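Retry 2 of 3 after timeout on previous attempt. Resubmitting structure tokens to design endpoint.
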């Protein structure tokens, strides 16, 4: 069963995108653009464009600040996800330890295209987050089922 963790914050919503008020793939939402721009930059970085690593780190830092301002707490679930993502991107500064960058690439594809977030699922199991609720990501499942019928 694939699950998507909820924030449990006052703004509510899906953890990686920080909301639950509509489809995950909405280009009208700045949160979606954060992930899409990150995806483009991380693909460029993996393809050999070294400044792409710095762009990913900058975007990740902006996401931390954005969600910190929105959630007003470093312990808010969406902020935790961005802090972990930023920490993993900082490992990209160390050329010998670039393996997490490939995992981030895969995870960013999953968030951007499918609304699934591995970091959220891992953080959900941490002791300080155990009281947070988990829900099925029904809008995505219904959309996939509808596409199969057509």
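Retry 2 succeeded. Sequence:
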């Amino acid at each position: 069963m694939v699950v998507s963790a909820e924030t449990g914050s006052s703004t509510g919503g899906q953890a990686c995108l920080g909301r639950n008020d509509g489809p995950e793939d909405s280009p009208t939402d700045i949160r979606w653009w954060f992930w899409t721009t990150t995806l483009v930059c991380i693909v460029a970085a993996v393809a050999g464009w070294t400044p792409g690593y710095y762009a990913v780190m900058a975007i990740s830092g902006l996401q931390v600040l954005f969600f910190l301002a929105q959630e007003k707490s470093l312990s808010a679930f969406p902020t935790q996800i961005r802090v972990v993502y930023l920490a993993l991107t900082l490992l990209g500064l160390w050329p010998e330890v670039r393996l997490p960058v490939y995992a981030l690439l895969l995870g960013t594809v999953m968030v951007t295209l499918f609304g699934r977030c591995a970091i959220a699922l891992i953080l959900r199991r941490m002791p300080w987050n155990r009281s947070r609720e988990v829900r099925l990501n029904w809008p995505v499942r219904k959309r996939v089922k509808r596409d199969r019928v057509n």
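Attempt log closed. The beta strands are 3-5, 134-136.
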